Amino acid sequence: MLPLLGKNLPEIQDIVLQLGMPKFTAKQIAQWIYEKRVRSILDMTNLSLTNRQKLIDAGYEVGIEDPMDAAHSKDGTIRYLFDSHRQKGDKPANDADASVPGLPIETVYIPEHDNRATLCVSSQVGCKMACYFCQTGKQGFNGNLTTNQILNQIYAIPESDTLTNIVFMGMGEPLDNWTEVQKALEIITAPWGMAWSPKRVTLSTIGQMQHLPDFLNQSQCHLAISIHSPFADERAELMPVQRAYPMEEVLTLLHKYDWSHQRHLTFEYIVFRGLNDDARHAHALIKLLSGLDCKVNLIRFHAIPDVDLQTSDPTQMEKFQSILNEHGLTTTIRASRGEDIYAACGMLSSLKREGKNKLSRK
Ligand code: SF4
């Protein structure tokens, strides 16, 4: 079957015209899928029965698939597992990297105390970027998700109606699957789609420069950049992407944009004990980010097997935070969520958690 969830308005218009239906029915179909959230074409009751049957006969369906499993944390976080198999005929734009049928993808639902609820969505099965501290990076790359598979994570969970925020911080580097992620962002924010404000959506990247300019120019969603060290050689050991796209290049690009209004720029910094949590790092970070209207988010490291790093202790993290704040760099410490169900930052994976890894320390 061919899923309609994941099609943008021009694509739906092409489908209805090909089937000899009036063009205006495309907007009706988009409304049934993205606003009214129906799961069956037969429920699109302002389309004639003939037109609904034409869609079904042509092999279309809404295309929402329920999660395979869910793990519940004691803090309320839920880690959902979805099957990554694709529906026939639904391919990501870059299909050279076919996904492995049956490998699960993970999505994390994070309820807050103030009625907010954030969904952390995945954009790839595994990841190519091989960040040293990340379980998804250890898995390697198994394929890009389609727009249907990205949006299905939002539409298929029971809490879908309660979501207030979406973050592209799950498995994968979203800018490495830009065509599908861009279409998902378009559908989330378009008036004919979910009609969400882009201020409710954040894309997190390690600084993939091939498509960062596209994201900045084509979307108004918030941006989070993973930095983790102000020193190039140290960052390159933690994040091999530094060798291809040095942080200096990323910062030069970011300086060209206006961050003083509603669009937020955040730098994510995992704080590792004895590695990047001292005053020298704090001052270098302040210098590196000077002149940018941004904030810094400090994140506790969540241990993964065979990685010889530890999280910084809370007092050291607070000292680090104070230095940044005292120098005018707004800095928060992110609350850790879902660690007991392997749902916290850096812990997502389709595979069993195993393997030997060592980081050479200087
Ligand atoms: S931190 Fe992000 S970019 Fe790096 S390996 Fe993990 S998922 Fe990929």
Task: Summarize the structure in words.
With 362 residues, the protein is of the alpha/beta class. It folds into two domains: 2-61, Orthogonal Bundle (DNA polymerase, domain 1), CATH 1.10.150; 69-341, TIM Barrel. 29% of the residues lie in helices and 17% in strands. The chain has a ten-stranded mixed β-sheet with strand order 3-4-5-6-9-10-11-12-13-14, with helices on one face. Helix 1 packs across helix 2 (25-35) and helix 5 packs across helix 6 (178-189). It starts with a strand and ends in a 29-residue tail after the last strand. The relative contact order is 0.12. Residues 352-362 have low confidence and may be disordered. Iron/sulfur cluster binds next to helix 4.
Chain-wise SSE layout:
Blueprint: E1 2-3, H1 9-18, H2 25-35, H3 49-57, E2 60-61, E3 69-72, E4 78-83, E5 104-111, E6 117-120, E7 124-126, H4 135-139, E8 141-144, H5 147-155, E9 165-168, H6 178-189, E10 201-205, H7 212-218, E11 222-226, H8 232-238, H9 241-244, H10 247-254, E12 265-271, H11 279-288, E13 295-300, H12 314-326, E14 331-333
The structure holds iron/sulfur cluster (SF4).
Iron/sulfur cluster binds next to helix 4.
